Amino acid sequence: MIMKILKPLLGVVFFALLAVSFTILGADSAEAAADRLVIEKESQLFDEPDLTAKTGASISPQTVTVLEERANGWYKIDTWLGEKWIAPNGVKADLTFSTKIYNEPSFLKSSGASISPQTITILDKRNDGWWLVKTWLGDKWIAPNGIKLVTKETYTIYNEANFSSGTGASLSAQTVTAINQKAGGWWQVKTWLGNKWINVNDLGFSVPLKIQDYVVTSTYGPRWGKMHFGVDLAKSGTVEIVAAAGGTVSKSYYSSSYGNCVVVRHSINGNTWETLYAHMSSRSVSVGDTVSKGQHLGYMGNTGDSKGQHLHFELHDGLWNDSKSNAVDPSLYINF
């Protein structure tokens, strides 16, 4: 009699337990699904939740198990390399001040636009300080904290991006924070004097004349249908020509084109440069002579292929040659 009563009760209990069991299993399955992440495009793997901590490896599109998730876009996952981090949709960050936007990771490649303070999505970071971010212009570059610039020499500090604004101070070789750049080797950097300028092309060359009231009659670049490989400086009267930097005279000769000409070879920071001085009325140095910066070389003239008294001055990053393949614009290194 008792067994007849208990059998139906046992059946109810069994089905109730079975239902609970299915409910628990279903809850576990849903939780597992919530810990899965579908990677829709190839994504870089990182050792830490830091866009500069790249492993050099990437993971292809697939579904992965998430071990940890952070609100700014980082996911910790298990990979064949062990536990690594990914940010397949970028990393969220707060930009607290207006920042210029660049088309490439270079201060010389400005887009002309700026991004206002807001939460941004960072897609990539370079070790030097450049960030690739999403913008209304597409994926662009910003450097909100400046970039790292390694200076290998001592440079004069300038107030502005010109050689006539020297502060009288210099910056020794070190890693500095650069916040702007201009053509010709100019960098604006943070210093103990504030934001100042240095010129990495500043190798110590000076105007190769004893006087200051000369006129630049022709610059480096195309002229009259061909390339003019130097800068022309003119002044009437007796004008003394001096060495733009210390070195050794490698050529002293006369030619139908250059007229009386002197070439001085310089060794600067382990590199070889040559300066050329043409159309001189006379030469006062010979091949092999050692000259110091500012030392007399001769006088301005009108010899060779010349249309009036002037100095034709060339600067070569390397040795002078007939094709002038090493010629550079002297105005990038000297404030004429």
UniProtKB/TrEMBL annotation:
Residues 227-329 form the M23ase beta-sheet core domain. One of its GO terms (molecular function) is metalloendopeptidase activity. It comes from Bacillus infantis. SUPFAM superfamilies: Duplicated hybrid motif (SSF51261). This is M23 family metallopeptidase. It comes from the Bacteria. The lineage of its organism: Bacteria, Bacillati, Bacillota, Bacilli, Bacillales. It holds the Pfam family Peptidase_M23.
